[in-house]
Write a structure and sequence with these properties.
globular, alpha+beta, 8-stranded mixed sheet, 24% helix
Length: 197
C-alpha cells in the first residue's frame, strides 16, 4: 500500500538519490531550476510504501509573471523504478493538484511530456504569452487552470517568488541552490510557524 505524506527531513537523502537517478546530475542546469534555486517549495509530497521506503516525490513552487500574477510550478515529479506502473505518479499528481486547489491557487505550470500530463488537464494552449527564463521546448511547457481565466491573464517571463531558503544565521539567502541543512530548516520552521521547540 502506498501512502502520500508531506515531505519531511528524513526523506531528503532518498529524494535526492531518486532525482539523481531519474534526471541525472545535470538536473540543476535545467531552466526550471532557475525558478526553484534558493527557494522553499510551497508544497512537497512523497509517496511511501508500507515499510516507509520512498516510492516517489513531487514539489510545487511559487512563480509569478511580469505583472505579479501568481502560479505554481510543478516539478520535479519522480517515481522509483520498482514502483513504476503502479499509479504512484498519478496519485502524487492528483494529490498535488487537489492540495493546490484546496489552498486557493489558480493555476499550475510545468515542463513535461504532454502525453503524460494531458490526463490531468495540462495543455500548452493557454501559455502563448508566458515565457520561461531560459531555453525550453514550448510544446512541453504546459499549464492547467484551477480557477477559470488564471492562465489567460499571465504574460511575460516567469520569475521565482515565495520564501527563500535560509542560511545558518536564519537569514534569507537567495543565492543558494542547495537544500538547507536540517538545522536551517528548523530555523525556517520556527520563523514561519512561530514555534520555538
Amino acid at each position: 500500500m502506498i501512502t502520500i505524506v508531506d515531505e519531511a527531513l528524513e526523506h531528503f537523502s532518498a529524494r535526492e538519490a531518486l532525482l539523481d537517478l531519474g534526471f541525472g546530475e545535470d538536473r540543476y542546469l535545467k531552466t526550471c531550476e532557475r525558478l526553484r534555486a534558493g527557494r522553499i517549495p510551497v508544497f512537497a509530497y512523497v509517496a511511501l510504501d508500507e515499510a516507509g521506503k520512498l516510492a516517489g516525490t513531487v514539489r510545487l513552487w511559487s512563480v509569478q509573471d511580469e505583472g505579479g500574477q501568481s502560479s505554481l510550478l510543478l516539478g520535479p515529479l519522480a517515481v522509483a523504478s520498482e514502483f513504476r506502473g503502479r499509479g504512484v505518479g498519478d496519485r502524487l499528481m492528483r494529490h498535488a493538484l487537489n492540495q493546490a486547489s484546496t489552498h486557493g491557487h489558480g493555476s499550475v505550470v510545468l515542463v513535461g511530456d504532454p502525453a503524460y500530463y494531458e490526463r490531468f488537464g495540462f495543455s500548452s494552449g493557454k501559455l502563448a504569452r508566458v515565457i520561461l527564463p531560459g531555453p525550453v521546448d514550448h510544446l512541453r511547457f504546459l499549464g492547467v487552470e484551477l480557477l477559470p481565466g488564471q492562465l489567460a491573464e499571465m504574460n511575460g517571463v516567469l520569475k521565482a517568488s515565495g520564501d527563500f531558503q535560509v542560511n545558518a544565521s536564519g537569514t534569507a539567502d537567495p543565492s543558494r541552490g542547495v537544500e538547507p541543512s536540517p538545522a536551517e530548516q528548523v530555523i525556517f520552521h520556527q520563523e514561519k510557524c512561530g514555534s520555538k521547540a
